[in-house]
Every structure is written in C-alpha cells, then in structure tokens.
TrEMBL record:
This is NAD(P)/FAD-dependent oxidoreductase. It comes from the Bacteria. Its cofactor is FAD. Keywords: FAD, Flavoprotein. Residues 321-386 form the NADH-rubredoxin oxidoreductase C-terminal domain. Belongs to the FAD-dependent oxidoreductase family. It comes from Pelomonas baiyunensis. Residues 5-300 form the FAD/NAD(P)-binding domain. Transmembrane segments: none annotated. Coiled coil: none annotated. Gene3D superfamilies: 3.30.390.30, FAD/NAD(P)-binding domain (3.50.50.60). Pfam families: Pyr_redox_2, Rubredoxin_C.
C-alpha cells in the first residue's frame, strides 16, 4: 500500500515527541519529512540553562541524534525554513527552494522571545535566550565582557542570570514586579529565593522599568537606563520578558490564529482538519502552553489521530513550575496564592529556609507552593491534578504521603456534568 505523506514544520520537542508516538503505534503509515530552521537535531531546550552554566555540553542534551531520523526513514532538512503553505495543492515551500507535498501537515513552529521595543533594543550585545545559538552567543559574550543585565525575573530570566554568573559575569536582574517569579511563587517564597540568589552574588532591581539601552561609541550596549534614572553597566543584555507563539506561517496560509494556532481537542486546526498543530505555537481552548509536560500530552493525543486510531481527546493540562538552578529547590502548582473560598496550611522554618504552603478548597488540594524542600511536589501535583479527596489526610498532608497511602482507595470527585 502506498504510504501517506506527513510533513512536519519545526523540529523541536513537541513535534518530535509526536513523531515518536506515531512511529510506535503506526510505524509504516507515513513517509515523513521534517523541516527545522536550526542546524541541530532535536535537543532538550529545558537543559539550555545547565549548558549555559557549564554543567552540561550541547551534545549531552540532544534527544534524537541524526541517526534516529535515518533509522526511521525520516527525511530531515536542517537550516531550511518553510516559507509558504499551499493548502489547496497540499504542498509546502521553503526558503532554500524545496517543495514537499503532504496528506497531513503538522505545525510545530514553537515560539519566539518577546523583545520589548525599548530604545536601543537592536544594539550589539542585546539578545534573547531561546535556543542553542543564543546559548553559544551568551557563553562567548561572558568570556569577553564583565557586566550583564537580564531583563525579566521569571524562570528563564533567573536561569540565564545564574548561568552568566557561573561564567564569571557580574549580573543584575531587572524585573517589573516587586517579587521574583510572581507567576509561580507567593511573596514569602519569592523573598526566600531572592535572598538565596543574592547570597550567590546576583543583584536585583525589582519594581523597575527599563527606559532605554545606552550605546557606546562602537554601537554596543554599555548600560541599561531605568525609568528612575539609574544606570546599570551592561555589555550584555539578555531579554527574558516572555514568549509569543510563532503563527506567521499559519496566518499566511489562512489558518485561524488567536493566541496561537487554534486547535480542537484532537489537535487539528479548526480551519483545516488535514493540518495539525502541537506545542507552543498551538492555542487550545484559549491557552497556549509554554511548558514541556502539556506539550507532551498534546503530542500523545495528536499521534493517535495521525495514526488514524481516532481515539484520545486533549482537554487541557494542569501545570507546575520548577527552577533549573543547581542547589535551589522550588515547586508550585495550581492556586498557590489561595483565592477566596480557600484555606491554607503553612509550614515556614526560616533557619533551614524551608517553606511549604498547601491550599485547600473543601477536601481538595487546589494549590501548592514549596521552597527548600520539594521532595513531595510530584505527590501534591497528582492530588491536585486528579482531584483526590484529602480530608482523611489533612492532619498529615504537610508531611507527604503516609506509608499506608493507596491511591486507588482514595475518593475522587465525580467529573463535572
């Protein structure tokens, strides 16, 4: 039987995970062609921070070497960007003049960093932090220059700042919010984190807004000017102010985009059922996810439909957050702040730097914020995600799963009608 043709645009973690699942369940169904804009095979972007810090090498974070593509008969084109999709003819065209017909098209175009358009953002020495090329450029800059400023105190910004610190730079983090990781931690945990990072040598400008990036005579950035008039020396400025889904190609092809390429529960685009989208470029029920776990959940569902099994529905994901900085343990998930109608159980030991906050609504765990001791984070996340009743465990919930805990015996809320 003649094979169907599957073309995948993008060669990142979500897309290749989809191929892995597809090859496992329907190994002979498609001739597969992959286009990747980068020159590298699929690698673990989550581990870019350890590469920057010198704790791992680029080769150690490769997930699928070139041999994997060859072994599975996948035609791989690296360093070639798809520039147009002809949905009527079912063919894609690339910057290098290639054309590839498809029966099914999988868009895994990921996201791009958001660079605030402040004066000076195009100066030499100003960069985003998103891929291996950015990581290599930052390592090179750290070897040549002394002062760095990271704009953005979220997960990626703090990982970039720590990596540059490990490379010997003097680093200041500029953050618009008054607390670090304000989307992941409550004020108490954020304060503990700041104190730990300051003890390592990082500096912070919190509640600060960047007014402009100032050049030297050669056109390289030399300082960051804050709105209050403060000048921070910087020969390197790293923008870590968030990401935006890459939707330009989909928009040019007439696919509906809103906060990403809009997909349904089977990860098919709502515009064209022959076109699928997974990962950071996709918007499902109004949400575009930027963490690995939801993207892998999307990949599993998408693969079942590409395999023509017709099973599986993606209904959204619960997410948790961790910081990839050696020696710092933090975890958060769900409503960790504690909205109206909830109550919190808190343990805080300032001497050991341990802080735990569990948020309950009735007999359900709805949020968790842990700092200094995250050993039970995965268990709390399961309780939260799966809706188990924890009423019988309330007195010992703070101390992790009891030895007699048996998941199948725990009551679970009935699904909403």
């Amino acid at each position: 039987m003649k094979k169907l043709k599957l073309v995948m645009v993008g060669n990142g973690m979500a897309g290749v995970k989809t191929l892995e699942e597809l090859l496992r369940t329907a190994p002979g169904l498609y001739d597969i062609t992959v286009f990747g804009a980068e020159l590298h095979p699929n690698y673990n972007r989550v581990l870019l921070s350890p590469v920057l810090a010198g704790e791992q090498t680029p080769d150690e974070i490769v997930l699928n070497p070139l041999s994997w593509y060859a072994e599975h008969g996948i035609t791989l084109h690296l360093g070639d960007t798809v520039t147009a999709i002809d949905r009527a003819a079912r063919v894609v065209h690339t910057a290098n003049g290639r054309s590839a017909p498809y029966n099914r098209l999988l868009l895994a175009t990921g996201s791009r960093p958001f660079v605030p358009p402040v004066p000076g953002h195009t100066l030499t020495g100003v960069m985003a932090y998103r891929d291996l090329a950015d990581t290599h450029a930052m390592i090179d800059a750290a070897a040549r220059h002394r002062h760095a400023v990271v704009i953005g105190g979220g997960l990626l910004g703090l990982e970039a700042a720590n990596g540059l610190l490990q490379r010997g730079m003097a680093v200041t983090v500029v953050h618009l919010g008054t607390h670090l990781l304000d989307r992941q931690l409550d004020d108490t945990a954020a304060t503990l984190l700041r104190q730990t990072l300051e003890a390592r040598g990082l500096r912070f400008a919190l509640g600060a807004q960047t007014e402009a990036l100032l050049p030297d005579a050669a056109g390289r950035v030399r300082a960051v000017l804050l709105r209050d008039g403060t000048e921070l020396p910087a020969e390197l400025v790293v923008m870590a102010a968030g990401i935006r889904p890459r939707t330009e190609l989909a928009e040019q092809a007439g696919l509906h985009c809103e906060r990403g390429i809009v997909v349904n529960d089977t990860l098919q685009t709502v515009t064209d059922p022959r076109v699928y989208a997974v990962g950071e470029c996709a918007a499902h029920r109004g949400v575009a996810y930027g963490l690995v776990a939801p993207l892998y959940e999307q990949a599993q569902v998408c693969a079942t439909h590409l395999a023509q099994h017709g099973v599986g529905r993606y209904q959204g994901s619960s997410v948790s957050a961790k910081l990839k900085v050696t020696g710092i343990d933090l975890f958060s998930a769900g409503d960790f702040r504690g909205e109206a109608g909830t109550e919190s159980i808190v343990l805080h030991d300032p001497q050991t730097g341990v802080y735990k906050k569990l948020v309950l609504q009735g007999d359900r765990l709805v949020g968790a914020c842990l700092y200094g001791d995250t050993e039970d984070g995965s268990w709390y996340f399961r309780l939260l995600r799966e809706g188990h009743s924890v009423g019988a465990l309330r007195d010992q919930l703070m101390f992790g799963p009891p030895a007699t805990w048996n998941e199948p015996c725990m009551a679970k809320e009935a699904p909403a009608a």
